Amino acid sequence: MPNLMWLFHQPRCYFVSILIKAKQFRDFKYDDSRETLLMQSNDTLRKLRDHQLIFAITSGRSGTKLMAHILEKCCDIQAEHEAMPRANFVLRSVQAHPDAAKWWLSSEKLPAIASRLDERPYGDISHLYCKGFIEPILQMGMKPDFIVLTRPAREVASSLYAINCIPKRSPSGQLVLLSPDDPGVLAPDDWQRWDDYQLCYWYAKEIERLQQHYSMTLPAAGCRVFEISMKELTDEAAILQLIRFLKRDPEARFDVATYRDIISVNQNPKAKLSAELRADLSTLDEKEEDVDATLARLARAS
Fold first, then answer.
1. How far apart are the C-alpha atoms of 166 and 144, rounded to whole Å?
2. What is the pTM for the complete model shown?
3. CA 145/CA 189 separation, integer angstroms
4. Strand partners of residue 225
5. Torsion angle, alpha carbons of 167, 105, 228, 175, to 10
6. How many angstroms separate the CA atoms of 259 and 297, rounded?
7. From the CA atom positions of the chain, what is the Rg in Å?
8. Is the dihedral of CA 65, 206, 177, 10 positive or negative?
9. Which tens digits make up the pLDDT trace of 128-177?
10. Using H for helix, E for strand and C for coil, what is the string for the chain?
11. Pairing mode of beta strands 78-81, 122-125
């Protein structure tokens, strides 16, 4: 049987949802010999393996909602932004018990995706896949396309700080971000000495490290990878290259008029930078240098 202790790391609301959805388990069984969940209904795995899937590797606060809207409305791709069921409610559990990722993907996420597929390529544009869910997807035989969506670390950190989404320290940070005490991350033992901005900056640099890792390793696993920056989402030439990559068609086009309408509107507005953060901007170089020097030392030692 799978280790279900991870359930007790859930927020209460999600634990209740697990109980409500327990009927799903009638369609699944656990195979101890291979330590994997086998889907038995509707050929779900086969359907997903045969379909073109698209996932993002990104930090969040990086244009994921804008990208999803562009793909869905302009490019004839079935794209969703952080599609339900959302992985944020199991992120803490997956970090504590990595095997839980395959259990959750098999019992909830992937069947939900399979039930919504149409004839178009399908993309779930979310910053959560790179936080413990990519390897289980590959282990189940899927070979998605991955979009590495980048944004400068300072911009990511400033945006997170402005909305009080702080790794480890704020409720929203706990819910959706990696923490410096999670397994496998590159962080010092004394990370508590960093202030909130430095933790946000550390998180942005950790995602950059993961992006570099996956950009090198995923092609060897049979997956295609395309890198684009948040800034390039408003560049028609860059979008054209992205669409031709995803469609596997050097002549593919997209709906330019609709695209221009979409990029004229902020797809994910948040509060403006606080006066506190604006006052802190003069000290950001020093704070970032501290984090960068620490990470460089850890990288050399690893």
1. 30
2. 0.86
3. 35
4. 146
5. -20
6. 44
7. 20
8. positive
9. 999 999 999 999 999 999 999 999 999 999 999 999 999 999 999 999 99
10. CCCCHHHHHCCHHHHHHHHHHHHHHHHEEEECCCCEEEECCCCHHHHHHHCCEEEEECCCCCCHHHHHHHHHHHCCCEEEECCCCCHHHHHHHHHHCCCHHHHHHHHHHHHHHHHHCCCCCEEEECCCCCCCCHHHHHHCCCCCEEEEEECCHHHHHHHHHHCCCCCCCCHHHHHHCCCCCCCCCCCCCCHHHCCHHHHHHHHHHHHHHHHHHHHHHCHHHCCCEEEEECHHHHCHHHHHHHHHHHHCCCCCCCCHHHHHHHHCCCCCCCCCCCHHHHHHHHHHHHHHHHHHHHHHHHHHHC
11. parallel
In tens, the pLDDT along 20-40 reads 344 333 344 434 333 344 444
Distance of CA 14 to the CA centre of its chain: 19
In tens, the pLDDT along 87-124 reads: 999 999 999 999 999 999 988 999 999 999 999 999 99
Token pair recorded at residue 105: 């993907």
State the Cα–Cα distance between residues 268 and 86, nearest whole angstrom: 17
**Tokens standing for residue 60:** 């969040």
Percentage of the chain with pLDDT > 90? 77
For 231-244, write each residue's pLDDT tens digit.
999 999 999 999 99
As a whole number of angstroms, the distance between CA 70 and CA 125 comes to 11
The structure tokens listed for 4 are: 């279900």
Residue (of 105, 108, 298, 130) closest to 223 by Cα position:
130
> How far is Cα 217 from Cα 41, in angstroms, rounded to an integer?
32
Least Cα distance to 230 among 266, 255, 203, 206 occurs for 266
CA dist 72 and 298 (Å) reads 41
What gap in Å lies between CA 82 and CA 44, rounded to an integer? 20
